[in-house]
Amino acid sequence: MSYVINKGECVSCGVCGFVCLFGAAVLKEEEKDYYTINAEKCTDCGMCAEACMLKAITPDADYKKVVSVTINQEKCIGCSLCARACPVKAISGVIKQPYTINAERCIRCGVCASKCKKDSVDVLYA
After folding, report:
1. Which of 35, 41, 57, 71 is the most exposed place for a label (fewest CB within 10 A)?
2. Torsion over CA: 85, 89, 94, 99 (sign)
3. Do 118 and 126 contact (CB within 8 A), yes or no?
4. CA 95 to CA 62: how far, in whole Å?
5. DSSP helix, strand, coil percent of the chain (3-state; round to 5)
6. Between these two residues, 27 and 71, which has the higher pLDDT value?
7. What is the pLDDT of residue 44?
8. Do 110 and 92 share a domain, yes or no?
9. Distance CA 21, CA 106 (A)
10. CA–centroid distance for 93 within its chain
């Protein structure tokens, strides 16, 4: 899953690359006048699509929107890997105690889930 940029609509303003916290939006080739999204780096947070004034960025065909990210308090061992990986510092807690996610700060990128070794981060897709 990832977002894609319609190369016919992209004016190469670079906003997508500026707002992407994961380095997924890149200028494919310098002689081309459009950006592309590296699907391997894209976390589907949608920040690039929200920032694009021309609405040239859309989800690809396999896209499923992340509607919530939560930490299972019974499974979490308080290792802090999720908190250290969170690009917006939406996760907090005390070592060896279950961590929590601030739903208002969370951008629903899912990076925390990819870092959790105990599968205690639950991602709900719609």
Report:
1. 41
2. negative
3. no
4. 37
5. 15, 20, 65
6. 71
7. 86
8. yes
9. 13
10. 21
Distance (Å, whole) CA 125 – CA 123: 6
Assess whether 26 and 47 both reside in one domain. Answer: yes
Question: In whole angstroms, what is the distance from residue 32 CA to residue 30 CA?
Answer: 5
Cα–Cα distance, 93 to 83 (Å, whole number): 8
Asked if 111 and 86 count as a contact pair (C-beta separation under 8 A), the reply is yes
Same domain, 71 and 117: yes
User: In this structure, what token pair is assigned to residue 37?
Assistant: 């999204």
Instruction: From 91, 55, 56, select the one nearest 76 (Cα to Cα).
Output: 91
The total number of residues written for the chain in this structure = 126
Q: Do 86 and 55 belong together in one domain?
A: no
52-95 per-position pLDDT tens digit:
999 999 988 877 778 899 999 999 999 999 999 999 999 999 99
Amino acid at 36: T
